[in-house]
From TrEMBL:
Organism of provenance: Formosa undariae
PANTHER family, per database record: SPHINGOSINE KINASE, SPHINGOSINE KINASE RELATED PROTEIN
A molecular function GO annotation: kinase activity
Residue ranges occupied by any DAGKc domain in the UniProt entry: 1-129
Protein name per its UniProtKB record: Diacylglycerol/lipid kinase family protein
Length: 297
């Protein structure tokens, strides 16, 4: 078996070397061929394509957070190579959604041993941007934008920008065309969800299923600041949704037009400002190495 590890060395401020050292030992012990690709932020897309072509791995393993998972999934588009996830980022929302073990070395064992390959959806935005987990415009995109520019990582840094954003919540207007209907709305945040919860544990909707060929548009019309502060950034259950003014639309494609350009983030990466979003689900675009711990299987 040939394994390709795709590693983001800086995701979440988490040191990946202890995991890689243990994984290498296991590969050597069991005669598994492997290579390691470390992202640098420079020509990563082109370089991983070359490695995939030359090495021809049987399985690809994403080592990092949600952004690394997305990068790996997009690199594998239009191939039959399955991918697995090692959760080693600041937010591992997609790994949690998919029942991946929170212990990295156990997640690695599961990937090597499993013969269960699921069809995981991918969301495409404006034909060239992608999301595998959750994207949004509004308050959370502002939080992520601040977090991205900070040299510090981890939940404490995220919390700083979370608190700052709460004091500057501004509603924006939009028109949504989907399911042969037109919706006019005003919200402080719009989520484009292929899953249910952020990596922080905050749930956006209870309907999300990343393997059903649909995504959810979630409109948060008003932020209940007192509930958020009381709950903190630790643990939320789905009763939290009852305290917020949310609307949820399930669809396979949509056109969203804002009155003013809005900042967009996808899976923890700020993409830029857009006045129009054309969103489409790519059903089963990713071959996912998974297990029976995945509630969607």
């Amino acid at each position: 078996m040939k394994l390709l590890f795709v590693v983001n060395p800086i995701s979440g401020g988490v040191d990946k070397e202890p995991f890689l050292k243990e994984a290498k030992t296991m590969c050597d012990n069991y005669g598994l061929d492997y290579k390691i690709f470390k992202t640098t932020g420079r020509s990563d897309e082109a370089e991983i394509k070359v490695m995939l072509e030359e090495f021809q791995p049987d399985k690809v393993i994403s080592v990092g957070g949600d952004g690394t998972t997305l990068f790996t999934a997009v690199a594998l588009l239009n191939t039959d190579i399955p991918m697995g996830i090692i959760p080693l980022g600041s937010a591992n929302g997609m790994a949690v959604e998919l029942g991946v073990s929170e212990k990295p070395i156990q997640a690695f064992r599961d990937i090597v041993m499993s013969n269960i390959i699921g069809d995981l959806d991918l969301v495409r935005v404006n034909k060239k941007h992608y999301s595998i987990h959750i994207g949004d415009v509004g308050i959370n995109a502002t939080i992520v934008n601040g977090y991205e520019k900070d040299e510090n990582r981890g939940m404490a840094t995220y919390a700083k920008y979370f608190i700052e954003a709460l004091s500057n919540v501004t509603p924006f207007k939009m028109k949504i065309e989907c399911n042969d209907k037109v919706f006019h709305s005003e919200a402080v945040m719009l989520g484009v969800c292929n899953a249910r919860k952020y990596g922080t544990g905050v749930p956006l909707n209870s309907e999300g299923n990343p393997m059903d060929g649909l995504f959810e548009i979630v409109l948060i019309e008003k932020i209940n600041v007192n509930v958020l502060i009381k709950a903190g950034l630790s643990s939320f259950d789905e009763t939290f949704l009852d305290s917020q003014n949310n609307s949820v639309i399930s669809t396979s494609k949509a056109k969203i037009k804002f009155n003013e350009p809005q900042l967009l983030q996808l899976d923890g990466e700020v993409i830029g400002e857009f006045k129009t979003l054309k969103v489409k689900i790519l059903k089963g675009a990713v071959k996912l190495i998974t297990s029976k711990q995945n509630v969607y299987i």
